[in-house]
Description:
Elements: E1 2-6, H1 19-33, E2 37-42, E3 52-55, H2 62-67, H3 71-81, E4 85-88, H4 94-104, E5 109-113, E6 119-121, E7 127-129, H5 139-152, E8 155-158, H6 161-173, E9 182-184, E10 207-211, H7 221-234, E11 237-242, H8 250-255, H9 258-267, E12 272-275, H10 281-289, E13 293-295, H11 306-313, E14 318-321, H12 324-329, E15 335-336, H13 339-351, H14 353-365, H15 372-383
Parallel strand pairs: 1-2, 1-4, 2-3, 4-5, 5-8, 8-9, 10-11, 10-13, 11-12, 13-14, 14-15
Antiparallel strand pairs: 6-7
Helix pairs in contact: 1-15, 3-4, 7-13
Amino acid sequence: MRLLYLLNVSNPDRLSADSGFTFADLLAPALTDAGAEVTVAAPVPTGDRRVGFEPTVSPATKYRARFDPGVRDLADLIRRTRPEVVVANQIEAAPAIRAALLEAGTDARLAGYCHYLPFSFTGDGRLVADPSLDDGGLGPAVMLAFAAGLAACDRVLVHSSTSASWTTAVAARMGVNLTEKLHIVPAPRDGRLVRDPADVAVPEGRATGVYGHRLYAHYGTADFTSLARRLVTEAPVTVTVLDLFGTRSPERVRLDPSPERHRDELAALDGVTIASDRGDRVQYRNLLAGAHFGIAPFRAGCPWSMSVIDCQGMGLPVIAPRTGWLAEHIDEDLLFDTAAQAVAIATRLATDSEFYRVHAKLAHAATADLTPAHVAAGYLEALR
Length: 384
C-alpha cells in the first residue's frame, strides 16, 4: 500500500508538544514495518529515514490549516507520490483533498483521522462548539467544514468509542452517513515512555502529581488551577506542571495569551512547580518518573490524551474528571465529579500503598494494546 500521510504540524518550534507529529513519528515506521510505503507530507520529517518526506509549509494559523489547504499544491503532491491511500489529519481539508485527487486523475482512497473534535456534547446531549475554534464567530463554520470533511472521506478514523459516538451524532445531524466508513483506531504509545509498574516508587505518605497538558484556557486550565490549589493545601501532595510550550512566538500569543497567563498563575502557588522538558524526550521521561500520579485535563469533550497515555505507560495512575473519553478510559476509582473527590483520591494514592500498587498496574495495563505495531495493524485494516 502506497500511503500519503498529510500532516499539519501546529507547533513546529516545539515538536515535543505536538501530539499529531508524535503520533506520525511513532506510527509511520510501524506502518513501514508492516509493508506499507509511507510518505509524510509535513513541515518537518519524521525520524525514520525509511519514511518518505515531502516538505510543506506550516499554516500560519489553525484557521488557515482548515480553510486554506491549497488544492493546486495538493494535486501536484499527489501526482508526484502516486498514493493508493491519502490520510488527511485535518478533516476540514478533506473536500479540498478530494478535489485535488480529481484534478490529479487518481482514484486513491481518502481517509480522515479525527485527531481533534471541534465540538463536544454536554451531559444533557447539547452540542457545543469548541471555544478555541470560535474566534470571530467561526465555530459554526468550523463544525460545518468538519461535517463536509466527513462526507468527503472514504474512511473516517477516530481514537475512541466516545469519539466515535460524538462524531456519528454530529454527522447524522448534518446529513452525513458514516455507515461502513467509521473505524476506531487509538493512537500508539511511545515505547520510550514505558516502565514496568514493579519499578514505580510507591509513595510513603506524600506524593507528587504531574500535569502535562497544554495550558490553553479551553483545556480547562482554570479548573485545574483551582484543583491544584486545593491539592497542595488539603492533601499530602505537591504538583509539577509541565511547561510544554516555553516561549511562544508573538503571533501565537496574540491569538491566544491564555497559556502564559495560566502558567504565571500556577507558578505563584506554593506547592506547585513549573518544569520544562526543553523538548527533550529523555528529560520528559525523567519528569514523569519523578512523579507518582498524573492529572488529566479538564478539557470539555476530551476525545483522547497522549499525555494521559504517557503517564499510564510509565505506571502512573491518572486521576480524571468524569467527562468524555476520560470516563471511558480511566478506572472508576480514579474518576471524580468534584474537587473534594479529587483531593480524597489523591490523598489515598499518597497514603494507601496497596491502592497505589493496584492502580499503577492497571494504568500500565491500559496501554498494553497501544504498541505502534498493534496500532499500525489496525490502522492498515481500517484503510483497506
